Amino acid sequence: MTLRLSILIGFVLAILFLFSSEAFSQAPTSASGPQTVFVFVQRASSHVKYSKPAVFHDVLDDLMGYVKQKNVAMASDEFGNRTHSEDEMPLATVQGIARDSGATYLLYALVERPVTKWIKVTVRCYDMAGQQLWQEEAASGGGLSGEHGLRVTLDRLHEQLDKRIGQAGLPLAALVAGSTQTVPQLPQ
Amino acid sequence: MKAAFWSLVSAFILFAGISQAQQSAPEGVNSPPSTAKLVLRNGTAVNLKLAQNVNSRTAREDEPVEFVLAEAVKVGDVLVADVGSRAIGTVIHSARPNFEGDPGEIAVKLTFLKAGKTKVPLRGSTFEIGNTRVMLRGTQALIKQGTPVKAYVDADTEIEMPVPTGPASPSGEAIEPQPSVDEAAQNASQVRLPNGTPVWLLLTEPLSSNTVKVGDSIKLQVLEDVKTGDLVVIPARTPAIARISEAKSAGMAWHKGQMAIRVESVTLIDQEAVPLELATKLAGEPTNALNNWAGAILETQGLALFALPFAPLQHGNQAKLRRGAVLEAVTGAEAVLDRGTVEALQPEPFHGTGPAAVTFYFPTFERARFHEIWIGSVRLGNLKEGRKILCQLPPGRYSLRLRKKARSEVVVLEPGAEYYVRLGFLQALVAPGVEATGLTMVAHDIGEMESMDLRPAGFQADTIKMSAASLQEEPAVSK
């Protein structure tokens, strides 16, 4: 009787050991691999209609410069070399590019020109399943010129993003062991 | 009690050992992740769709454009690129509309398809032209997301793919079955013209939307030899079958004429036909009625305003294609020819003797009154618009110019060959920053067609009797 009970307990322990070791070995790679973010800046149709391409490129340069300065681990699109689009591009296409680049997160910045504002920049963070993790936005309608509005908007955006550095969506390259991610070169 | 303890320990060790053994077993034993090197052949059709909008307002040349695969690409039964796989194109031309009513233009060339980790080169393109508008700016050209685009694989491309079934080599590498000796011999005895091979066609008659009817056949011929390796598969000047698929004459109120052309097939060197794919649509040029009326009103100090109510009686321009226009079609199917037949039918290489014949011509679509023609230090004369002149020149190197002290076009003439030189700056393609010479050496057949209806020049040029040294003199200003 005791012998049978012992064998049964041994069997149960072995099964538990088997499942626990398998579960450990099958942990998602995203949790164990280096986390990177693919940054994409989209120009909205309202900005195309009522603003200038140079303003959009100022935002693009600023945002790329910001993540570089903050040492964020970025994924680059080696196949298509995309960082932005001035034509309408569906979010699904951008998510496809992000997936293609091997990123863990997508940082999608939408540059708009609302009627009552000089500029509005909305930054949304998605995971690779397409779920939105967080969103930050900054806009400015004050001042006498669009240039002032742009500066104020970007400063506000930096302040908001500063709080998220090192968290989901903005992983730091320094914290990622062996990260080989490259940051796109910005035009001088 | 002791026996029970040891039984428990031994049972645990036994099960743990089995589970570890299962985990550490080589992958190849349970699930062989074999790979195969597959070759995606040149000419394989690739059906794509645009994954973004492209607008002449925002698109810039050399910018990437996103496409996705609309139909899966397979090699045999093996899927190499699934629906939704990414492809990239490049904007090769973008022009915004202007206030003369000209529409925006956009053209995108396909570059690569992503198949696994491999970049598969593609050939193919798509373009769009906005609408011409009278007295308003033309509309932007827009290619919408989801627009289907057909492309072709541009070169044989080796793709390494995981294959779930099939024989695996001991090293875990399953190679595509090697062709048998018979298949290899068959391949060596055949010449393959891939699907999607570009074929340049020359129009040998002028077309206008007010004279053509739907179903009319069009005279087109192959401009250049189409080759597979060193073998000519479609010789130059082979006629192609094409028809008018849509025709609408220009009408009042500036309604422009329209016509559409559908190219059907061409005959191969072995007299078999291969289908061609080209469907192109043409519309009349803008009338510039706004500028004309504004100019008329200013010049007549307002009197032309009285005629303005009759302005809508004005017709739009007919859609026209001049003789000598070149269209690009692609083969619509793979053609396999017998190598022996193809080799036997190869055209003889040209071996000319005697002086070369050079025809200078000044087509009517250029807008100038006349151009001078200089060869070396010899001035031939003034060639007026719509005229041509034939010169016989001994073989050698010559500097051709439109003025005495202008940049030269240097040409080397072969014995017995015929050359055509077009005068004018409108169609002269030059590198940025380089001064145009206004002289363009055009392909023989294009020159022949473009100059066919032109009248002879009003002067004689008996160059064969002139001093060869003067004709071949290099001017000091030439670069």
User: Would you tell me the structural class of the helices and strands of chain A?
Assistant: alpha/beta
- Provide the residue-averaged pLDDT of chain A: 80
Q: Which structural category do the helix and sheet elements of chain B fall into?
A: mainly beta
Number of distinct helices of chain A: 6
Radius of gyration of chain A (CA) equals 23 Å
Largest sheet of chain A: 5 strands, mixed
SSE pattern of chain A, N- to C-terminal: HHEHHEHEEEH
Largest sheet of chain B: 6 strands, antiparallel, barrel
Mean pLDDT of chain B: 83
Largest sheet: spatial strand order of chain A:
2-1-3-4-5
The most extensive interface, with participating residues per chain, is:
A-B, 33 and 37 residues
Number of helices in the DSSP assignment of chain B = 7
* Measured distance between first and last alpha carbons of chain A: 82 Å
**Beta strand % of chain B:** 35-45%
Helix content of chain A: 40-55%
As a whole number of angstroms, the C-alpha radius of gyration of chain B is 32 Å
What shape does the CA trace of chain B take?
A: globular
Short key terms for the protein model shown above:
heterodimer, A: alpha/beta, elongated, B: mainly beta, 13% helix
Give a written overview of the molecule.
The complex is a heterodimer of chains A (188) and B (479). Chain A is of the alpha/beta class and 188 residues long. Chain A contains 6 helices and 5 strands, in the order H-H-E-H-H-E-H-E-E-E-H. Chain A has helices at residues 2-25, 29-32, 45-50, 53-69, 91-100, 146-162; strands at 37-43, 84-85, 105-112, 119-127, 132-140. With 479 residues, chain B is mainly β. In chain B, strands 2-4-7-8-9-12 form a 6-stranded antiparallel barrel. A 6-stranded antiparallel beta barrel of chain B has the order 15-17-20-21-22-24. In chain B, strands 33-32-26-29-34 form a 5-stranded mixed sheet, covered by helices on one side. The interface between A and B is medium-sized, with 33 and 37 residues.
